[in-house]
Amino acid sequence: MDEGARVLHPRMRMRMRSPALWLALVVLSIISSWPSDLEAQTLEQALAPLRDHGCVGCHSLDGAQSQGPTFRGLYGSTRAVHRDGERVAVEFDEAFLRRSVEEPDAEIADGFEPGFMPRFELSDTELDAVIAALASVPVDGPGDTRTWIPLALGLVIFVLGHLALSSAPMRGPLVASLGGEGRFSVLYSIVAAIGLGLLVWGYGLAPYVPLYDPPPWTRWVPNLIVPLAYVLLVMGFTTPSPTTAGMADRASAGPRGVQRITRHPALWGFALWALSHLGPNGDLRSSLVFLGIAFLAFAGMVHIDMRRGAAPNEAWTRYERETSIMPFVAILGGRQKLVLSELGWWRIALGLLAWAAMLHLHRFVFGVSPLP
Ligand code: HEC
After folding, report:
1. Do residues 193 and 157 touch, judged by C-beta distance below 8 A?
2. Ligand 1 pocket test, candidate residues 100, 128, 136, most atoms within 8 A of CB
3. How far apart (Å, rounded) are the C-alpha atoms in residues 308 and 127?
4. Minimal-distance CA residue to ligand 1 atom 36
C-alpha cells in the first residue's frame, strides 16, 4: 500500500508538499478577497466608517452575536433598552443612534452590560458618516448573495477529499498513474488547499442562522482547552511518527514522547480545538465547520490505523498495541509508560506561545474577542 514511499525519501516528500500548499493558499486567499462585484464594493464603501472606528470588532453586520448587539436590522427598529433601571422600548432612529454613540451608557441595550461600549469622540462629519453607515447595513444581512454552496463544497472537498484521496483504493492507483508519491502529494495538497479556501470563503458567504443563545460560561471552554490543543499540535508535528504519510517505517523505533499518551496527538489537537469552539458560537455555519473538522480528525485517526494495519506488519502491530487512540489508555492499561522527559518542555512552551499569539490576533482575524 505504501509502495511508493520507497521511491522518495520522506523528508523530500515533506518538502515537496509544503511549497505547493502555501502557494495554493496564497492564490486562494487573493481570489477570495477580490471584490466580487460593484454592488458589493459600494456596500463595502458605505460600511467603511464602521470598520474605520472599530465598531465591527464588537458589533456584527450579519446578525452574529458578539460583544455588542448586531447592527443588522438595528436602524429604525424598536428594541428594549434599560434607562435609569427601567426597561423601555425605544426606536433606534437617527437621533437615538447619535446619542448611543456619544453617550453609550445613557441607555443599555437589552441583554448587555453597561461600561463596555467605549465613548467615541467623533467630529460632526465622522458621526454623520457613522450614522449613514448604520442606515446602510442591509436589513436581511448582506442581501440575496448569501449562499451555502461554497461552504458546502468546501466541507465536502476538505473532509471527504482528505479521507478519499488517502484511502487505499484511490491512493495506490493515483500514485501509479501520476507517476510517483511526490506528484500525489502535490495533488493532495492542492485538493486540501482548495477545500480549506472554500471553507474560509464560504463561511463568510453563508447566511447566519442562530441555533441557540450561547450562555457566557461557554467561552471558558475554548479558553481552557485550546492551549492544550496547541501543545498537542506542536508535539504531534514535531515528533516523527509512523502515522505520518510515508513514514510507516518509523513504527519499528517504537512510541516516543507524546505518542506514549496518544497515537494521534496532532489530530487530537485539531479535534479539541474544533469541538471546544462549538459551545460559544451557537450558529449553523460555524457549527458545520467545527463539526466537519472534528469529524475529519476522528475519522482520520481510525482511517490511518486501518491503512497501517491492512498489510501484515509486525512493527506496526506492536506499535499499535503499545499505544492508544484515547489519551492515556495505553498507560492506564499498563502497556505503556509516561516519560515526561521525552515530551520536551520547548514543545509545551512553543504551543503556549502560539496559543497566546492567536488569543491576541483572534479579534482582528475573526472579529470576535475570545475572552470570557
Ligand atoms: C468594545 C466594544 C464596542 C465597540 C468598539 C463599539 N461598541 Fe457599540 N456597544 C457595545 C456594547 C457592549 C453595547 C451594549 C451596551 C450598551 O448599550 O451600551 C453597545 C451598544 C451599541 C448601540 C446600542 C446602544 C444602546 O443604547 O442600546 C449602538 C447604536 C452602538 N453600540 C453603536 C456603536 C458604534 C457606531 C460603534 C463604532 C463607532 C460602536 N458601537 C463601537 C460595544 C462596543
Report:
1. no
2. 100
3. 63
4. 55
- Which ligand 1 atom minimizes the distance to the CA of 122? 38
For residue range 72-121, what is the model confidence (pLDDT) as tens digits? Answer: 888 888 888 888 888 888 899 999 999 888 888 889 988 788 888 888 88
- Which of 226, 200, 214, 207 shows the shortest CA–CA distance to 281? 214
246 lines ligand 1 (CB under 6 A): no
Instruction: Write out the three cell numbers for 118.
Output: 467605549
Torsion of CA 49, 51, 57, 60, to 10 degrees: 80
- 271-290 pLDDT per residue, tens: 999 999 999 988 899 999 99
Distance CA 208, CA 283 (A): 7
Output Rg (C-alpha) for the chain, integer angstroms: 25
Strand order in the sheet with 78-83: 86-91, 78-83, 108-109
- What are the residue ranges spanned by the domains of the chain? 1-41+144-208
Quick one: how far is CA 220 from the chain centroid?
17
Q: Are 316 and 242 contacting, i.e. CB atoms less than 8 angstroms apart?
A: yes
CA dist 369 → 68, 83, 278, 352 (Å): 11, 27, 15, 18
In degrees and rounded to multiples of 5, residue 185 shows phi and psi of -60, -40
The grid cell for 105 is 451608557
What amino acid occupies position 347?
Answer: R
